[in-house]
């Protein structure tokens, strides 16, 4: 039943000029839209806003290329609605079902971990838990399957369907337009500048292990490591006794080689402050951040096993191995930076929204959905 479909992908705007770098969810919607647009079936794709924020030309993407409408304006012209970045209500669900619109829950967040942390540690996520149990299918990306597949399937009363991860350099290119070398890495003289850019909002992507890797590398290479910036960590350095207590034992701190700073968007911070990125994840082994860094040639030391061919990979939480990868990057990356960038783009290609096998797989998923 392969045919052109009218597909809606939900977003939830909080501001008329909302940045694409607040989080990855708007980027996710754009990349998925681009993939469907590149199908040989020429699907008609609309971004569907589920909040009351007006859709205007102040949005950072091209509204002709990626049409964006309020739910009320889009609801009567959809064969499929993919709920991704904005949740629909029971009433909206019932209306779509009355029109035989297929509804997919596209899960790209580690909901089990987030809800568990909220329950145990009092991290309030919401005052009202709403779980829609009337989807036609539940699609889950690989890194979320690891922690949350069972949680999502049981509560949504549907068998979980694994779907491929999708990325595209379009948002990166939009942000780096006008930057020197379009934001791409270029070698510079002097010691290596290290950036650690974890969100630091849960255990999945936290800065402590990367900081320990940087500390171990500093003990080996000394002045070859110039400085470490840890973003999204200013609050930890100011208000967390445990974090401060551990940091005081580090040579990086004692030698004034590290700063704990606030939030910065990835492309600009890479271009202005970074030679090597050090990262660690625990149950979230794919992330746009990895591709944003590596596509533009920045050395990335990481442990994300779902993209081992990207950057400089170390296994699990092996900090010794991570240290050796960082030392290698500090000492050798600049001698190989051009071919490294070529290798990175080749390794990322299977995840691209324009990659034909990936597009074909999503068309298979759509065909099965419509036929069910």
Strand order of the largest sheet: 3-2-1-4-5-6-7
What's the CATH class label of the largest domain? Alpha Beta
**Beta-sheet strand percentage?**
5-15%
Q: Give the termini distance in whole angstroms.
A: 10 Å
Protein name: DUF2827 domain-containing protein
Organism: Paraburkholderia sprentiae WSM5005
Sum this structure up briefly.
The protein is an alpha/beta fold. The protein has helices spanning 25-37, 71-74, 90-98, 111-121, 142-156, 170-176, 208-221, 234-239, 241-247, 251-254, 266-273, 288-295, 319-332, 337-348, 356-371, and strands spanning 6-11, 44-49, 68-70, 80-83, 102-107, 137-140, 160-162, 192-196, 225-230, 258-260, 276-278, 299-302, 312-313.
Report on this model:
This protein has 372 residues and is α/β, with parallel strands linked by helices. The termini are close together. It contains 15 helices and 13 strands. It is 40% helix and 15% strand. The model has no long low-confidence stretch (mean pLDDT 96). The chain has a seven-stranded parallel sheet, sandwiched between helices. A six-stranded parallel sheet has the order 10-9-8-11-12-13, sandwiched between helices. Helix 7 packs across helix 13. The chain folds into two domains: 182 residues, Rossmann fold (3-Layer(aba) Sandwich), CATH 3.40.50; 181 residues, Glycogen Phosphorylase B (Rossmann fold, 3-Layer(aba) Sandwich), CATH 3.40.50. It comes from Paraburkholderia sprentiae WSM5005.
């Amino acid at each position: 039943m392969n045919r052109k479909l009218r597909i809606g992908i939900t977003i939830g705007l909080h501001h008329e000029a909302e940045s694409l770098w607040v989080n990855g969810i708007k980027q996710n919607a754009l990349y998925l839209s681009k993939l469907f647009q590149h199908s040989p079936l020429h699907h008609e794709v609309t971004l569907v806003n589920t909040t009351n924020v007006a859709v205007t030309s102040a949005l950072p993407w091209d509204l002709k290329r990626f049409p964006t409408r309020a739910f009320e304006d889009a609801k009567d012209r959809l064969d499929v609605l993919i709920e991704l970045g904005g949740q629909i209500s029971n009433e909206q669900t019932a209306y779509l079902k009355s029109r035989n619109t297929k509804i997919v829950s596209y899960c790209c967040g580690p909901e089990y971990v987030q809800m568990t942390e909220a329950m145990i540690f009092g991290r309030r996520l919401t005052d009202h838990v709403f779980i829609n149990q009337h989807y036609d299918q539940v699609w889950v990306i690989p890194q979320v399957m690891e922690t949350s597949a069972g949680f999502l399937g049981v509560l949504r009363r549907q068998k979980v369907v694994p779907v491929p991860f999708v990325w595209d350099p379009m948002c990166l290119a939009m942000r780096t337009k006008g930057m020197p070398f379009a934001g791409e890495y270029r070698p510079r003289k002097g010691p290596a500048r290290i950036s650690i850019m974890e969100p630091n909002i849960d255990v999945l992507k936290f800065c402590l292990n990367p900081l320990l890797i940087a500390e171990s590398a500093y003990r080996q290479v000394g002045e070859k490591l110039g400085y470490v910036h840890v973003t999204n960590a200013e609050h930890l350095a100011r208000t967390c006794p445990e974090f401060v207590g551990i940091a005081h034992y580090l040579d990086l701190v004692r030698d004034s080689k590290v700063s704990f700073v606030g939030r910065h968007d990835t492309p600009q911070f890479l271009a202005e402050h970074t030679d090597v990125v050090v990262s660690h994840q625990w149950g979230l082994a794919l992330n746009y951040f990895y591709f944003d860094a590596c596509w533009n040639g920045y050395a990335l030391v990481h442990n994300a096993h779902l993209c081992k061919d990207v950057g400089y990979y170390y296994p699990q939480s092996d900090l010794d191995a991570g240290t050796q990868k960082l030392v290698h990057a500090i000492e050798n990356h600049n001698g190989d930076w051009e071919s490294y960038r070529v290798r990175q783009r080749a390794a990322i290609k299977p995840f691209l929204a324009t990659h034909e096998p990936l597009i074909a797989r999503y068309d298979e998923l759509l065909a099965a959905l419509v036929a069910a």
